[in-house]
Specification:
This protein is an alpha/beta fold and 300 residues long. It has 10 helices and 13 strands. It folds into 3 domains: 84 residues, Winged helix-like DNA-binding domain superfamily/Winged helix DNA-binding domain (Arc Repressor Mutant, subunit A), CATH 1.10.10.10; 97 residues, 3-Layer(aba) Sandwich (D-Maltodextrin-Binding Protein, domain 2); 96 residues, Periplasmic binding protein-like II (D-Maltodextrin-Binding Protein, domain 2), CATH 3.40.190.10. The strands form 3 sheets. Strands 8-12-7-11-9-10 form a 6-stranded mixed beta sheet, with helices on both faces. Strands 4-3-5-13-6 form a 5-stranded mixed beta sheet, with helices on both faces. Strands 1-2 form a two-stranded antiparallel sheet. The structure holds a DNA duplex (20 and 20 nucleotides).
Amino acid sequence: MNLRQIEAFRAVMVAGTVTQAGAMLHISQPAVSRLIGDLERAIRFTLFDRRRGRLVPTTEGKSLFREVEKAFVGMDHIADAAQAIGALRRGHLSIVAIPILAHGFLPHIIAEFLKRYPDVSIHLETVQSTPTVVEWIASQQYDLGLGVLPVEDPAITARPFSRRKALCILPAGHRLASKPAVHAADLEGEYFISMQKGSVFRFRVDDMFEKAGVRRKLRVETSTRQAACDMVAAGIGIAIVGPLFARDVTERHVILRPLEPAIFLEHGVLFPAFNPPSLVTERFAELIVKYTDRHFPNDR
DNA sequence: ACGGGCCGATCGTACACGTC
DNA sequence: GACGTGTACGATCGGCCCGT
């Protein structure tokens, strides 16, 4: 007994004749006839009486049909579920991101994604640094991560979505605010708010000033762009932050200027290397790339 | 471990024929 | 004519073996 024979049996019960059952299953009438015959031989009792060239279900046939119907209801559920998953009408996506991307940037993408796929549920977690994002993605605790590139970890597959310049943040009314761009040499002797040590970004900023021979007065160190902006707005000093992916209230009270020489920062989507992304994850990653191209194109 | 070839089982169609 | 059964034959698939 096999599934194909059961399928043919059900089709004959539903359609009434072997010919129509064949049409239902998109096979020929003899094929159905043989499947029914094979099934009867396998179970060793007859499912149909052959009366005047017609198949009439026996009592045993009717009993078996009730059981088959129960099983096919379950099959229909599976088919529905498969279709729903394929069409992204169901699904879950867990994301871990650094603050600059989790705030202001990702909410817009999530909103756009949920317009297209309203029944997908999303969990967004914010962590302070890209190494933590990498760790959580590598251990497959989250489906997708967003952080700063490069990521040199064999357990991670990275897909860049943005390459943009860092910005200099000045307090309103600062002497450098009138300049179209701020040069490293302009910041000689300025009070400075620095991003926390250990990050790729901090290393690049310090390296740039060192090569330019510029000495700053490092006043405060912070881990978030938001805190740096707030402190610049409060007149504590000047800061250099990574590219912005949104404008928030605080940034209206500061002045943003390009930095010379430019410090490029690349952001990327991170996946676990040994676990292929689900359809939901893939679609979300594609949307991040499209959204960034549209609203925050790469700097040259 | 992987790919290719062989072989048997299974499933399909086409056709002939019987029954109503 | 409509429908069902039986048979011949071809296509496909999966298991097995063997070579790389």
